[in-house]
Each structure stands twice: as structure tokens, then as C-alpha cells.
What we know:
Blueprint: E1 3-7, H1 12-22, E2 26-31, E3 37-38, H2 44-54, E4 57-62, H3 77-98, E5 102-111, H4 124-143, E6 149-154, H5 159-164, H6 175-187, E7 194-196
Parallel strand pairs: 1-2, 1-4, 2-3, 4-5, 5-6, 6-7
Helix pairs in contact: 1-6, 2-3, 3-4
Amino acid sequence: MMKVLVIGGTGTIGQAVVRELGDDNEVVVAGRNGGDLRVDITSPDSIRDLLQQVGTVDAIVSCAGQAAFAATTELTEEQMELSVRSKLLGQVNLVRFGAAHVVDGGSITLSSGLLAHQPARGSAAISMVNAGVEAFARAAALDLPRGIRVNVVSPPWVAETLTAMGRDPSKGLPADKVALAYAECVRGSRTGEVLDARDFANG
């Protein structure tokens, strides 16, 4: 049994990850507004406080991070700053600070998204931070001590999110299927990889 910290574990993907890992592991759920513990990943101090409360873990999984969706010329300074501080720097800091709390050979898993490689109108900020997360993780995997692994899961559109938006859910992947890629990062031996969640949908 592993002790796994899931940040953003109250969201659509996060809840699915908690279900997938919860049967045979001790899962601690942290979120901005819910979960076992609270954390604001835009705040380095909040991340440090969370890690001190949790102590030593076998794995950290991040299903957290906000980014703005708006046309490039319409993005405000506040939207750009939030995107960088939340989804990019927030997850970067989870690795920087979290490594000291992960056991030898443990893992840290971050989240990016399909828009890093398949951008759409209005996705400039999201595409930028998603790609940044992926580049950071590939490099960080070369640096971390004690065999600690770092990977990224890149989810496509999630079916439940599409339903909530009033769009066709068949164009997305159910959250429970997305969660399989996160489980592979925790249970497997990969490091420095970006996993397309669609590749694990039948796993």
C-alpha cells in the first residue's frame, strides 16, 4: 500500500484518480475548496504548508491548475498571470518542494493537456502553460535525486466536462479512463514522459 497525495482530487479528473488509486492505497485529497486538506497552488507558502501537514508520501499526483481561455489579443494581464502562477508555476513548485517529501523511488505526476500540441482558437495561454509543464517535467526528471520519477499526463477533452458545457460527450474521454494514465505513472516505472491519456483508455 502506498501513501498518495492527490492535489485537485475534488475535481472531475481528480475524483476519478482517487477512485482508481483508492482501493489499494492510502489517498490524501487536497483541494482549494474541498478534500482532506486545503491548498492554493498559486501560493508557494500554501504548498509548503500542505506538504508539512502530509509528511512523507510515496507519490504526489497533481490534477490541479487553472488557465485562461481567451483570444490572444484579448488576454488580460490578470489572466496571463493566473495561468502562469497556477497551472505552470504551481505545478513546478509541487515538484521543487514536493521532492523532499517523496520516498526513494517515488513519483510525482503533473497535468498538462491536449491543447499543448493541438491548439485551438482562444487557447494561447492554456497551450503555453501546458507545453511549459511538459518541458519542465522532462528536464526535472533528469535532476531529481533518489530515483524520484516525474511524468505528465495529457488529458483530452473529458466527457463529463463536455456534458457540463452542453456539448457532445462522445467527443471526449470519460474521467475514469483518463485516470488510468495517472495510475500508470504512480504504479509503473516511467520517468520524464508525457502520457497521452487516450493511449491508456483500454488499459
